[in-house]
Specification:
With about 200 residues, the chain is an alpha+beta fold. It is about 55% helix and about 15% strand.
């Protein structure tokens, strides 16, 4: 098997393997770009259910740093027995929000430092919200094996996309009859990208 033949096979099978990822990123980007329309259609509303509202002494100082806020988030999530990625926001107006999220659900905690009170609400996402969560979920900064596995998969998909592009460029360059129109397509693509990057 020659290298050009191997390259064509690589391009074909990579394209097929990446179909669900192309579809997910394309559909979720459309949802994110047309958020106003989605909300007007009533598809973007989250229905929140109160989990609890109770006294709670977190022992958190008003000027707590990020590590102290994250420690509080870890404690609150563990106490509820939740398996999720989580984020502790900054302290604003004497309150701090902790978000605990998966692809399919979100629990938000709000702690009032002065009243020493903790509230929690739950919601479940519909298909459109799941898509946007999948689009934005990446990185190794979350805790948990599932989050790390997703981050590894995102890295592999990115590598696959780069190989797919490289194999396509190789095929184009080694097809002399297609070089003219291929060059037009390449220049048009880069021109549009650069123009929008520059805000034109």
């Amino acid at each position: 098997m020659t290298f050009p033949h191997l390259n064509r096979r690589l391009h074909l099978y990579l394209g097929l393997a990446l179909v669900p990822w192309f579809a997910m990123y394309a559909l979720s980007a459309l949802v994110m770009s047309h958020r106003g329309l989605i909300e007007r259609l009533g598809w973007g509303e989250d229905e929140w259910t109160l989990r609890f509202d109770k006294p709670y002494d977190a022992g958190l100082a008003p000027d707590a740093d990020e590590s102290a806020r994250r420690a509080l988030a870890r404690r609150v999530v563990d106490e509820q027995g939740l398996e999720c990625a989580f984020h502790a926001g900054p302290i604003k107006d004497g309150r701090i929000d902790v978000l605990c999220f998966t692809f399919f659900a979100l629990t938000r905690f709000n702690y009032d430092l002065s009243e020493r009170r903790l509230t929690a609400e739950d919601t479940r996402f519909g298909p459109l919200r799941v898509l946007t969560r999948m689009h934005g979920r990446a990185g190794f900064h979350h805790e948990g094996l599932g989050d790390d596995l997703w981050a590894v998969m995102v890295d592999l998909v990115c590598l696959g996309l780069l190989l797919w592009v490289a194999s396509g460029l190789y095929m184009w360059w080694h097809a002399p009859g297609q070089r003219r129109w291929g060059t037009v397509a390449l220049v048009a693509g880069f021109s549009c990208f650069i123009a929008f990057m520059l805000g034109l």
